[in-house]
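Re: folding output
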Amino acid sequence: MYKDNEGKVIGALIIGRDISAIKKREKERIDFENNLELNVQQKTAELIIANKELAFRNEEKDKRAAELIIANKELLFQNEEKEKRANELIIANNELLFQNEEKDKRAAELVLANKELLFQTAEKADRAAELMIADKELAFQNEEKADRAAELVIANKELAFQNEEKDKRAAELIIANKELVFQNEEISYISYHDFLTGLFNRIYFEQEKKRLEASDQLPISIIMGDINGLKLVNDGFGHSKGDELLVEISRILKSCCRKEDIISRIGGDEFGIILPQTDTSSAQLVCNRISDTCNKYALKGSSICPSISLGHATKNMRSETLDSIFMTAEENMARHKLLERKSIHSSIIASIKAIMFEKSQETEEHAERMVQLSKSIGMAMSLSEKQLNELELLSTLHDIGKMGVSAEILSKPGKLSDKEWVEIRKHPEVGFRIAQATPELVPIADFILYHHERWDGRGYPHGLRGEKIPLLSRIVSIVDAFDAMTNDRAYRLAMTKEKAIEEIKINSGTQFDPKVSRVFIENVLGQKWEQVS
């Protein structure tokens, strides 16, 4: 509460903080972590299946190798048997030849020879049968050998394929592990950094406060900073320009601090800096360095200069807590902002003018003519100093809402379409919202809203009639119309001063306040009302 010298309450200061961006970032981080956890689970399941498949193939490979060893041993045994059978056949043939030769010699022993011959013949038949069986078996073994050789070729190919698959799986595992490491690093970075500025975020700031709380790095200073006019830049230039302002402020803070200092964005337009082993005087020097850099700096492509209110506090004893130091720094920042209110006010008003002249096609000369003529009417009507100041500000910024209208419509040389007129008619309401969101313009917000109302109630946006329209809005309405008529516009050439005066009188009582019209013509323009045709 603000009180005068007699203790009477005359005002109040209310401070709020928009944490929508923080909540949005937290939700995005949680969604990202959930998606990452699902991806990791899927990759893990795929790796388990791949490992089981590889183990199964290795078992099959071992079975095939064992079968090949057995087949090779069996083939060797069969070859040895074959050689034995061949030797026996040679001996049998030699024996038969010997017996035929002995036949002539053994004539005397014919009986025995015949018996022996019968016996040998029977043996010969048996040997022949055995030889045929041996030949068949040898043929079968050769076929088996060919089949085993074919199977061995197939097994070798399958083994080579399995080895290739194994190498592929190993390569996939290496890639998956690298990707997992990268994702973990990225998650860690996102968890502790602000997405827009790259500075540390509130989470990291609080963790560092806890860590330094028990450290021996005294003295520890904390600097709190709050950007001036960020909402104005967002509304006037768009949020992309506001983001650019945040990034540039972040760069300024980093350039003015040491590497070991912890610089964090802890709110939408708030920054916190922890300076280990830094006393109060050194912290003040850092604040001065930041302010000086902001004063010398200009954002590219506009005349908006970064402005930030700063406050600092220092922990000198272990008994003090960094939370209390943080609160003290915030209080000092708020006090500093209040003490510099007039300077900040002037800076913001200058920024608003720069934005309007840049985006609304209005010129500084038009604004100066509006101020001069409006103040002349106000002085002729004996308005108060407060009203004259508000009238001067209103004359300059009454069309601030045109910042929301496209340049193509504002500079169109021909007749506007119905759709384009709808857009043009929105600018008083857009201007009202911008003024309501800017504390320095709140006193003239209603005047901006109603400066296109008509005396007969046919104006916009609310169709107010007569004295229900604020006086300052009625004054600006006449002056704006007169200046528009007497200066070239994209859609027509200027008319003479005399013709413009006639138009003001003709529309007095319908479009314009008749009393203000008469004061304007007689007291400001120096024409007798009755002499105007």
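--- second protein (sequence, then structure) ---
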Amino acid sequence: MAFQEFDMPGAGGEVPVLIVGGGPVGLTARALLERWGVQALLVEKHRELSPFPRSRLVNVRSMEIYRRLGLAAKIRDAAFAPEYGRVRFRDTLHDHDFATAAMVAVNAPVPASPVIGALTSQDRLEPTLLAAADAPVRFGVELTGLTEEADGVVALLVDHRRGEETRLRARYVLATDGANSTVRQLLGIGTTGPGALGDFTTVVFDADLKRWCARQPAGVYFTAHGTFAPLYPEGGWAWFGPTPDDAVRADWSQIVSRALGPDADVQADVLRVQHWAMNAFVAERLSHGRILLAGDAAHALPVIGGLGMNTGIADVHNLCWKLAGVLTGWADPGLLETYGVERLPVAQETLRQTVANTHLMVQVVNRRREQLQSGEAAPAQVELPWSERYFAQLGLVLGVAYSSAAVLGDGTPPEPSDRGTDYVPTAEPGHRMPHLWLTENRSTLDACGEWFTLLTPDPTHWEQRTSTSWPLHIETLPDEYTDLCGLRPRGALLVRPDGHIGARWQDGPPSDAVLDQALTALTRSASA
């Protein structure tokens, strides 16, 4: 096999950031870094984007991130209508519901956000993300080795199309290469958690099922014979269930048709079949020197609740502004230490919630199956062992709070919260900035971008204390929001580029140097 330096136009065989893995998380990181003006190269070992639907929910927080990237409308236009934001439980697909639950902030807007989540298949989302940036992408290129140096990382890459092994030097490597991450394994980073929960098979098929579903739409139908999901607004379905022992010889059309029920009289036209393992683990750490893990490489989450991909999108939203600050010089390299400090607890808590969701879903389906098999009279309606809020996890999606050197406390005791269910807006440091309308169509979240944002009722009082050493915008906060944000007339919130509050001054600036001091503290070494 030939060996040569990797051809990176204009970079002399070096790139600031090498992204390994071309799924939604890696593609989102590529778009975010480009917005910051950071050059990146993405390599993906497969020869094209995945043809499988895989993840199907873009939750409300991810849609807020895509709104800032100018992608929310395009994603929403290709997605299902909001009424599909619901799960239904049935004995077979053509039976009546015995239970149902809404996907909160997907089935209808919520006051806490300027956007609504979207139900769309991953194979529809990925082309939109790919087109969102111009940074180079190399399909069919696999990372096989890494060598860490004092000021960079040398990656060994195999181009399967050309049969060439090449070497590329990067300042940083971002691994978004999935649950079986090559990068994580090369680094010897272990994982914690239950591990593999079982082997499953997804069957993509065509069939006319409208007569059972059109009047009661849903994003997911759980049945005693597997799970059914509509794939695209114009048609197409997926079934998934446990992989049978003799999967190689399985007649998947017959299996799906049988799962539809004995009276269905429907033949499934099978298009694709994918076998996969449902994993449940979190990496022991999210970084090793200049190499960082995100998405499934950092945490593999059960699919129930749709939090896996979305947690990865939040990972890179947290990370990319920090990488940009380090690479462009306004942040200390130690700022990157806060990535793991902030995101690892979120991954661990999300894992606990998704495992709990999975057990509750299995509990409902198994109990119903036992009733049917025993001849016991099954009730027409079953009370689910969770509230609709619980299934949606709005508190976990919007209520994430960070505690690290990149957050400055203001001395206010934190309010207790249940991050799993309810979301209560708060302007405490570390929390996501609450959504508040600045103008008719412009949210406080829209004020955040490739800069720090100072929100204050009295911008004139703060403007003379600004510095040019960091990217900073000052925005007027309407007086009607001061109490909600815990501010007096001259108070201010300093919001990080990822929309989380970095500092709060409840009254006016205590000194002329207060902004410089805060920004220095927020962007310095975590151990300084």
